[in-house]
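Fill-in record for Putative salivary lipocalin.
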Amino acid sequence: MGLLYAALFACIATTSAWQAQMTIRNPENNPLLNDPNLGPLQSAWKAINKSKDDPFVLMFRSKNHEPNITCVVVTASLHNETLKIVNFTRTYYNKTIGKNETLKYQVRALNQTDYKLENVIRAGLNGTPSDKPTPLGSNMYIEYGDYSCNTSSKPLSDMLKAAKGTEGGKAGSAEPVEGVTYLDFYVVHNQPHCNVLRSPLLKGGCDFWLRKSDLPEVLERAENITRNIPPKVEDRQTKENSETTTQS
């Protein structure tokens, strides 16, 4: 029996150590999700190849990294179909200064490794976005620790090694740097009516974009659903007490 308990504790200890070092691939990073023969669900080109008359509005963000802006609308116009580059015009309301602002930039549809179709929208922060470096993947790895779960474009250990290597690198490098010359948005899911995008650099959150022409119908459905939701128990009791007081 003593040996059995010893083996059991050893197994538990090994499992705990394995969990603390476990790194898994994010399930949203799967080339089959964008296979042209199966019906692509993460097509970056379909997401950006829109006309000026087909704008999209930002409906929801899981990580609000721009708390001072609202009412975000993006319109697109084709720039280079061969290179799959599109001009974007982003209009939004700046709550800090109390007025609308406009931002113009170019985006490009690119593939991450192993993807047959483009699944990445690269925004140029300083002119036309380059196709280098190859996109790593939207939170491609998830590392589980004892008390936390960290997501990143590559394993945390690799990121630390890369950071140490950069310290001794040459200053003023012409290589594109994410967050400086470009920003990658990974298409988690898209269809003609909406797009879900994720940027690992911007806190790893998801942005939900809806075609503006569909907005009135969505708002109408939301209002109808709200009307059909039964009132809370405390609300009913308050109303009944109010009616009783009025009658007496």
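KEY FINDING: The chain has one domain: 17-165+174-213.
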